[in-house]
Specification:
single chain; 294 residues; alpha/beta; five-stranded mixed sheet; two-stranded antiparallel sheet; 10 helices; 9 strands; globular
Length: 294
């Protein structure tokens, strides 16, 4: 039903011809072979045997090759062709996406989000919500032309809603002592390592906290790379106000590939991160929210 709705909606969607053309880097398989990102080569080969997508882009550390093994996730945008949603093609498209998803999760066993799918017509109504248009030039093209046409639309309201939704989730977690988001094996993250078998759940918390600076800066019309956001944020706040962000970043820098074994939180992570992580995450989120209102 959803595929039928999309096909009908996009088929009748009248879009402006005013757009910008963005040049993308071409995928070079030699840069990925025999590395921790070798699964990207397999994804590329799988894509070239299919006709489901007009473009498949990777961005973030998978594109610039600055990964931390076992930590860095797979960020991607898959542009679905309208034909891939037709009844006779949906099964093949679904199976392809499942295969790619399995390959993707070999890069990061704790991957907490999937591939970002968009319809090809959505490129002409593209928000800054998940990947700002200004940063698309940093993406790498696994499939399709190295030039892509994009029409940017205002997404400021959705960006604010997303930011406030995360803030609300973190505050509720601090109050309840449990982060009711991204469960694994029906278990959620508890305060102060009450359940040590929740590394996947804790990594989600760390990743969300480390995303907050980018989202906050976006709301101030500063669309920057995540790697730049921490330094930029320091010009607005005192070092002690950002201590939990620093602790999360410290965990990332000392991450080891075998930290994902059996979903147990390693002692090294506990020592670096410290106690009361839900309360400290909420305190940081509240600081950022309050500063937007002032």
């Amino acid at each position: 039903m959803f595929a039928d709705h999309l096909e009908e909606a996009y088929g009748s969607w009248s879009l402006s011809s005013s757009n910008q053309k963005i040049k993308l880097d071409r995928f070079n398989r030699q840069e990925y072979e025999s590395t921790d990102l070798s699964a990207v080569v397999e994804i590329h080969d799988e894509l070239t045997m299919s006709n489901a997508f007009s473009h498949f882009l990777i961005h973030g550390s998978c594109a610039d090759l600055k990964i931390i093994s076992g930590w860095s996730d797979f960020d991607s945008i898959a542009v679905l062709k309208q034909e891939s949603l037709k009844k006779e093609n949906r099964g093949k498209t679904y199976d392809l996406c499942r295969r790619i998803d399995k390959m993707m999760r070999r890069i990061d066993p704790y991957q907490h989000h999937g591939i970002h799918f968009v319809h090809e017509k959505e490129l002409l109504s593209f928000p800054d919500l998940y990947l700002p248009v200004d940063l698309l030039a940093d993406a790498k093209c696994l499939l399709g032309s190295t030039h892509i046409k994009i029409k940017k639309v205002d997404s400021s309201a959705q960006e604010m809603s997303r930011f406030l939704g995360i803030v609300k989730t973190l505050k509720s977690a601090a109050t309840a002592g449990v982060l009711r988001h991204h469960a694994k094996d029906s278990k959620f993250l508890l305060e102060n390592y009450a359940d040590p078998n929740t590394m996947y759940q804790l990594k989600y918390l760390l990743c969300v906290v480390m995303l907050l600076p980018t989202l906050w800066l976006n709301l101030k019309s500063n669309y920057c790379r995540k790697s730049e956001s921490y330094e930029l944020l320091r010009s607005y706040f005192l070092a002690e106000e950002l201590e939990f962000l620093g602790a999360c970043s410290h965990v990332r820098s000392f991450w080891k590939a075998d930290f994902h074994k059996e979903n147990i939180i390693p002692s090294e992570v506990k020592n670096i991160l410290g106690e009361n992580y839900l309360a400290r995450a909420a305190k940081l989120a509240d600081l950022l929210e309050t500063s937007l209102e002032s």
